[in-house]
Amino acid sequence: MGLEKRTVKIIVIVAVVLLVIGAILGLILGLLLHQRYVELEVWPRSEEYTWEQPLIQFRPSDTGSWHPWYKRMNDFLRAYETTIPEDPPRAPCSTRNRRDDPIRSNNCEIAMRMWGPCTADEFYGYSMGRPCVFLRLNHIHYWVPHPYNVSTSLSIPTEMPENIKQFMMQRPAQTYGDYVWVSCGGEYNSDKENIGPIQYIPAGLPPGFPLSRLHTADKIPYANRNLPDQVPPPLIAVYFENPRREVLINVECRIWTRDIYYDQSSRVGRARFELFVNQ
Ligand SMILES: *[C@@H]1O[C@H](CO)[C@@H](O)[C@H](O)[C@H]1NC(C)=O
């Protein structure tokens, strides 16, 4: 009888310990997956950057207020500097203003023109109150995207922005390759009114990330998936042509693929930030 009691006790203790360990592991895994799975990054970021309150605020007429953003942008883009940009260029090839950079290569000059006005030459638009932000995907080594295209009979969501649908029609995936499409807009109704026109830069190229340049799970051997990328991921710039001044504008950006479901509370493939342009 005594022995049995002890056995029961041990079984109960082991069970409880296992449950606790399981719960902790589950929680950690859940948190990791939640935050680490297909992140859409927004740049520039301040030192105090948090996902909840990522504020970009400046006064175009006050150099001291926008210059830190210009500097942060350059710090971020330095990893992409090159004298031999790809075609089309993956990012602005120089982080120096034209006046300080007189001996640019011809190819870099062309690349800079394609990325205009989101270049150091134009202070990324901040001096004019027309800021650019850069977007890129991170934590995609374990992801195989299922792109939206018109090559298959699978339907395209009706709420997809018109500009993406047009690109999909005009540049069929069989010829031009597949994209992880991107769109940005005001988060709430008032933001939609205040945000003004948006352009995706380079203008004339599809608004998104070409699958051919993304290091997704289908392109890297299993053993290398936790290694960092040799080449930084491709960028797309979003240019706010005329955001209303003196109001906080909540901006939401998201990617469009068949396998990532849109959910306003999710961080997977979705980013938000706040824009405040002072008068
Ligand atoms: C088009 O989309 C489908 C479904 O996501 C995908 O399987 C296919 O590889 C894509 N590309 C082409 C060129 O069909």
TrEMBL record:
- Which chain regions cross the lipid bilayer? 12-33
Protein name per its UniProtKB record:
Sodium/potassium-transporting ATPase subunit beta
> Where does the record say this protein resides?
Membrane
Among InterPro entries, the record links this protein to: Na/K_ATPase_sub_beta (IPR000402), Na/K_ATPase_sub_beta_sf (IPR038702)
**Membrane topology listed for this record:** Single-pass type II membrane protein
* Keyword field contains Protein transport: no
User: Which keywords fit this entry according to its UniProt record?
Assistant: Membrane, Signal-anchor, Transmembrane, Transmembrane helix
Q: Which GO terms describe its cellular component?
A: membrane
Give the originating organism.
Loxostege sticticalis
Write out the similarity annotation. Belongs to the X(+)/potassium ATPases subunit beta family.
The protein's predominant localisation is: membrane
Return any one Pfam family short name: Na_K-ATPase
